[in-house]
Design brief:
It is built from four helices and eight strands, in the order βββαααβαββββ. It is α+β, with helices and mostly antiparallel strands and 202 residues long. It has one domain: Sandwich (Jelly Rolls). The strands form two sheets. The chain has a four-stranded antiparallel β-sheet with strand order 1-8-3-6. A four-stranded antiparallel β-sheet has the order 2-7-4-5. The protein starts with a strand and ends in a 7-residue tail after the last strand.
Amino acid sequence: MVNDTSYINENEDVLAKTDTVITNFMDRTIRVNPAAAEGGNKASFNFVLPENTIAWSYYITTAKENQEFDEANKEFISASEMKVKKFPLYNIMSAIALNQQATIKKLETGEPVNYWIMDGDNSSLFNAGLQFRYIKKGRAINDYARVEPRKGNLFFCFSNDKLTGSIFVTVKITAIQANEKIETSQGKRMIVVPRSKMYLKN
């Protein structure tokens, strides 16, 4: 038995590079009515993470001014000059999403709000007062965390325990994307075909 070897040309998709993209894609304020308000004391909104998100972070606060966030972000950017040059949108939210060391001072005085992060149909269950599942929950005047990415609709849901007086919650969300660039290159594929060959026996 001998092997006949030949080669054919064929195109092959290869990973050329991976681009890291920082997207500070949400900065909004939502009103949460008090428990005595007509219509209830719950509020929610949905969002969809960008394609190829590998991690994301959030920051919420009920404070009228974002002094703690602004000061922490300014100090963090000042200490991260090299990364900011490479990634102009790199900030404290990016570091939190990437699980790097970053701290924002927690407020001890103010109006705390109950919040949940959830997906799917759980927001409808939440609004209806039924049992629901959540990804993360908390009760705070201000809070932040890194969250693993999920596809589809995600929801921030809030409730206000106060009998009177609305709470205004500011929400910031930052996503980290890893976008792969695929290129096509031409290569050769080896084909080996075994066959029988006659020979003289001594």
